[in-house]
């Protein structure tokens, strides 16, 4: 199905249909799975929703790594709930992508063999407990910044999935901030761990918004189709403006000496992340790319007997029903 879809993308869409489609989007109507849509729209959304789903699933790995080592029972229960939420987010999103004619198995296979990507942030390790706070606060915080506008995206199933996801993400961010606040207000060693976590995760979090607008290949058409609502740079700036006062409130040092309030712009100036690092991580050379994909491949292989069992059960049930009719 996916292969067919990619092939048919080369065919030109009917200009009249295209214009009517654009008018619907301009009027603020939602596009639903059975409606006509240009192949480029379908293909872009499958890539975007699929990558998003994969990010939720792979994103469980750096945090799952700390469940057994959470410092208290309460923190452990919170982290467990959060990591489970991420699995749920992955499932809503795979379902949204499936409405466009690609199966969850196909998407999974494309993740496992590297044809599809997930957010570059999850290729960084979580080295200490403060990282778990920083991930919730900064990484989920950046995710929310990206996702809140997507509640208004033009594709109905994606927009509805986002509404539910955003509600849960705000809990994730709050628990992260609470965890890191405890560390920042703790012993000098704990404060040092909090500072180290912020220093290491700051630039990778800024990278989550994607390359600068001038280097972003998909932006213009996606904005016209309301697949994307804000530009990467707009969202990144919003994230910096929201987060700097929070870092100051924690009594931590800013992770970038270039951060300075710019009276004229009414925004914080900041140093751009090292984009060569970003592209290198995307290419597969981040600190954890190999581990992450190996973990997902192992989970898929280990789960083969469950899938086989479910399939056999469904087939037997269907055969019994058929025999009874
Ligand atoms: Fe999530
Ligand atoms: Fe989250």
Question: SSE layout and pairings?
Answer:
Elements: H1 2-8, H2 15-26, H3 39-58, H4 60-64, H5 73-98, H6 104-112, H7 129-150, H8 156-184, H9 188-207, H10 219-224, H11 232-250, E1 260-262, E2 267-269, H12 275-285, H13 289-302, H14 304-324
Antiparallel strand pairs: 1-2
The structure holds fe (ii) ion (2 copies).
Q: What brief labels describe this structure?
A:
single chain, 325 residues, mainly alpha, 2 strands, globular, binds fe (ii) ion
Structure description:
There is one protein chain. The protein contains 14 helices and two strands; from the N terminus they run H-H-H-H-H-H-H-H-H-H-H-E-E-H-H-H. It is mainly α and 325 residues long. The longest helix has 29 residues, at 156-184. The chain is globular. The two termini are 32 Å apart. Residues 56, 86, 89, 165, 169 line the site of one fe (ii) ion.
């Amino acid at each position: 199905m996916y292969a067919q879809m990619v092939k048919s993308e080369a065919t030109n869409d009917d200009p009249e249909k295209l214009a009517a489609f654009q008018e619907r989007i301009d009027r603020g109507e939602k596009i639903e799975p059975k409606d006509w849509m240009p192949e480029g729209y379908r293909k872009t959304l499958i890539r975007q929703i699929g990558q998003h789903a994969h990010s939720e699933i792979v994103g469980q790995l750096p945090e799952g790594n700390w469940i057994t080592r959470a410092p208290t029972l309460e923190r452990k229960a919170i982290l467990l709930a959060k990591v489970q939420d991420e699995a749920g987010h992955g499932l809503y999103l795979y379902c949204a992508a499936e409405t466009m004619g690609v199966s969850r198995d196909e998407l999974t296979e494309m993740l496992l063999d590297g044809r599809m990507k997930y957010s570059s942030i999850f290729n960084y390790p979580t080295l200490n407990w403060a990282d778990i706070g920083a991930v919730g606060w900064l990484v989920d915080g950046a995710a929310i910044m990206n996702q809140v506008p997507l509640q208004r995206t033009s594709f109905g199933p994606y927009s509805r999935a986002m509404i539910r996801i955003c509600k849960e993400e705000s809990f994730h961010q709050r628990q992260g901030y609470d965890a890191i606040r405890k560390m920042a207000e703790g012993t000098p060693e704990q404060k040092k761990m909090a500072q180290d976590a912020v220093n290491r995760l700051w630039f990778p979090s800024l990278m989550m918004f994607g390359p600068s607008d001038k280097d972003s290949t998909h932006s213009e058409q996606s904005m016209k189709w309301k697949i994307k609502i804000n530009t990467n740079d707009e969202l990144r700036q919003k994230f910096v403006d929201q987060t700097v006062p929070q870092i100051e409130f924690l009594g931590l040092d800013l992770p970038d000496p270039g951060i300075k309030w710019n009276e004229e712009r009414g925004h914080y100036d900041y140093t751009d992340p090292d984009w060569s690092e970003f592209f290198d991580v995307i290419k597969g050379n981040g600190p954890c790319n190999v581990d992450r994909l190996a973990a997902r491949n192992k989970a898929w292989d280990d789960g083969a007997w469950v899938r086989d069992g479910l399939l056999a059960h469904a087939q037997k049930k269907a055969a019994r029903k058929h025999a009874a009719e």
